[in-house]
Amino acid sequence: MSPLSRSAAGVLARLISGRRASGLAALLGVAWLICKRLRQKAAYSLTSQAAEVQHVDNAKASTPAARYRARLAAKQERGAAPGAVSRLPQDRSNAVEASAAADAPKLTLGDGRPAEEMLPNLSGTWLIVRGEGDAHAYFKDVGAGFARLALLKTFNYGVGKMTHHILQRGDDVVIVAQSPKGTVRQKFRVNGLEQDTLDTADGSPIKASAVWDGNSLLLSASREGKACNAARRYFRGDEMILELTSAENRVVLNRVLQKQTLNADLQSQADEAMGLPDESPPAVQPAEQSSPGSSLALAADADQEEVAKKERPNFSGTWHIVRDEGDARAYFQDMGAGIAKLAMYKAMNFGVGKATHHIVHQGEEISITAKSPRGTFQQKLRVDGSEQSTVDTANGRPIEARLTWDGDVLLMATRRRGQPWYTARRYFRGQDLIFELTSPVNQVTLRRVMVLKPT
């Protein structure tokens, strides 16, 4: 007999003998102890069996294939059809969906770009028609000095005067910017890498990186290792927005551009920068070999050229300088005049009321004879875009000049000793002839207003 049984028997004997009234309570306590021990033993046995089963299952399901077979067998044991496999775990399901998406056919655009990347095409000739924001604050923040700010204000910060011709082929972009300061070609690739290119504002060298930011083309520029500005192009309805942000104080200026008739000359320059072959039509054959259609085309071209020449202004006459618009002293100082020469110019009122230009203008030939207290000097030039040797009408010094038409404006770009010199523009404002001079260093502009002298 076990000690536990003997204890229970002793308690029962004492209860029967009636020696103690508490014998019943003691018996109930012993019964509770026995039940507790039995429960602990049963739990230990079940835990051991579960551990053994888990160990066996882990050994059998050591690979994904084994685990899959185990789940299939369990499903079949519960009475399901062999094809009714239990739902895969979430990560396995995501992997299957990703694999199916990768195998699905992809729609592409004409240049091979995925269809989901329907990026805008910015190609065309665009004119800046208005600005949104403080243009003066923006250009000041990007480093423009007092003289340049005055010049920019004179040109209305390019509004109505600056054209951007854009050629976009895939990720290759060429922008030909034309303004009163000249023409600048900017070329870059939209790949996020830093590239050498030119600033469309002034033609200075910069480093730039371009990326697509949604439907916006973002160009970030730096000069001499320092960030200068960011240019973002995007469409707002039929207009293109050129959003400029300065690097220092984050001043934002929006330039609103509208599409214009395609400019063939700018298109040709863009094609050349892009490296595309010349797609201009072949030259017209001689008249004896040409067909009636080509003869008509030749005659039409000649008529158009004749009309264009007739529409251009003729500056012939004797013109008298009656007043200046701008800071004459700042202009001549920027042209290199010292203190003594500036004092002499001031004594002569910078030529106002004392200087005349006698112009003989016939077709593309122009002769200008300038008379002033300093002497008489003559220029004879041809408006054909070629560089020609002549003299400065202000002092008779030798210079090189190149004349071209910019609409109704006669533009003369000069060089002296191989370096850029002043730029002169002649155009009519009502009955007055405007002789607009721009210095090469700080771009100081002086307008000389001239009236026709009676003969």
Order of helices and strands: HHHHEHHEEEEEEEEEHHEHHEEEEEEEEE
Q: Which class of secondary structure composition applies to the elements?
A: alpha+beta
N/C terminus separation? 154 Å
Give me the CATH superfamily of the domain at 124-274. Answer: Calycin beta-barrel core domain
Shape: elongated
How much beta, percentage-wise? 35-45%
Largest sheet: 10 strands, antiparallel
CATH topology of the domain at 124-274: Lipocalin
Mean pLDDT: 77
Q: What is the CATH architecture annotation of the domain at 124-274?
A: Beta Barrel
Q: What strand line-up does the widest sheet have?
A: 4-3-2-1-10-9-8-7-6-5
Q: What is the number of E strands?
A: 20
DSSP summary: helix tally: 10
Helicity range? 25-40%
Cα radius of gyration in angstroms: 45 Å
Characterization of the model:
With 455 residues, the protein is an alpha+beta fold. Among the domains are: 124-274, Lipocalin; 317-452, Calycin beta-barrel core domain (Lipocalin, Beta Barrel). Helix content is 32%, strand content 35%. It is built from 10 helices and 20 strands. The strands form 2 sheets. The protein has a 10-stranded antiparallel beta sheet with strand order 4-3-2-1-10-9-8-7-6-5. Strands 14-13-12-11-20-19-18-17-16-15 form a 10-stranded antiparallel beta sheet, with helices on one face. α1 packs antiparallel against α2 (23-60). The longest helix is centred in the N-terminal third of the chain and has 38 residues, at 23-60. The protein is elongated, with a radius of gyration of 45 Å. Residues 59-63, 80-93, 104-111 and 278-304 have low confidence and may be disordered.
